[in-house]
């Protein structure tokens, strides 16, 4: 008897609580529900970026209900959050990070899902391709925007034909970036010359081999190369070949220029996609894409020493100029 | 709470019911605090996902996942029994090793199953909406396993296993090979937990290297909540109470998710869990104290 009483009480409380929430949720005209797998500075700034863009487009606390739930790093809770959100039928659900986005996509095939800060949405099976995602899903990847990096190098050297890339073939992340680089470079008519360097101590020699063969050197975000960045810079100065990087921190250490992104940028770009959906576009008809960066660092002294001029257009956009 | 959310809560609750039953087997039946489950839950998900992606039939993949989990349990038991490593420590070692093994099995931290066939695929042509289908499927599976398990615990072998946990010396004196029972119990427990992981990966569309974190706490919470509601020595009732405990735990989480109006949000979930488990532990104790006091007062009057 006693046990069934407790059970009944629990159930009643649960149902009462649920009805109360439902009744408070009605006032706003649009409803955007966001969730992330864990509270983490990068993921939090994605959320803040989203909110900021929504506010700039006229969605504020009066006319929009905006919720944010963190799954506390627990995929089972991510699944429960996804069910809860989908059950409330918001206008857009936003999944920040791979497991959160996957939970949402497996929970709904109708409500628009926008993913953000997912490195590889295709292999995460969120979408089948970037250009026309179809169905109810689109969003932003936080993969290194190599195409944009190539464009930056091209802005310095419009006639560039060959780009040298030192990297460690033992680093899966670097291997993935080089594969992407080759794909994008082919589209732009640039040839990638690989300089594999398994150890930091080999970086100097591998970079020297590139001199005379390539128009510029690009250092991907590869730990081996970034550790020995100074060796590449020295080779660049000696051979009068500009060295670029995928990491803004490298510019202070001697690279000519680098374009980086921060998670706030990704959030803002995600916000733009959400606004388009709120205005009536179908999620599946908005191409998914890799977030673009806006942190542009240039080093004027190094540009001079490596014999390259910084175009005015780059200087105008630069967020940090190192003299 | 919407119907959709409620059904999702039940679905996840049933799946974690298997974890609760597995934890009950080790903690209560064998008196062997086993933290291997944090690793074997992910192991089940990882094996099922990797095999399904490799083209293996989802049912076959799920069965392999169960055997993988059982092997993990055997490893913990072996470390404990053969080398005398403290049970808690042995299970922590296995759990730690499994993290790497799971990453190796998956090849990357996250495997997606959203577009792959799953154990649910054969039933999708029945025309039942997916939200009902998932919960019906897991409910049937979990209840069937619960019934089988309660039957097993009442067989002679099961009784011997229970005796091993409650009084190993007595059990041995009665001719029970206790080591064998511990091996079997841990294999069974971790096999069930791996099955939960495999089902979770398939109904939620992914396996992730982090998905096992906290499994033990959730399982324990469910066992304790169930125990405090049902006071019985019948194996059937106990197994059912584990599953009901898991459902109630998930409902409590869902309420916490929906409880913005009292100022709760998800970051408070861990505290809510702790308070819930704490209350479930304290209440029966207080109840006993009250009863004792009442009886004492009655005696005086």
UniProtKB/TrEMBL annotation, chain A:
Pfam families: ABC_sub_bind. InterPro entries: ABC_transpt-TYRBP-like (IPR007487), Peripla_BP_I (IPR028082). Keywords: Signal. Residues 1-27 form the signal peptide. It comes from the Bacteria. This is ABC transporter substrate-binding protein.
Automatic annotation (TrEMBL), chain B:
The keyword Translocase does not apply. The chain crosses the membrane at residues 6-27, 59-79, 86-105, 131-153, 182-201, 213-230, 237-257, 269-286. It comes from Marinobacterium maritimum. Belongs to the binding-protein-dependent transport system permease family. AraH/RbsC subfamily. This is ABC transporter permease. It is found in: Cell inner membrane. It is a multi-pass membrane protein. The keyword Signal does not apply. InterPro entries: ABC_transp_permease. Keywords: Cell membrane, Membrane, Transmembrane, Transmembrane helix.
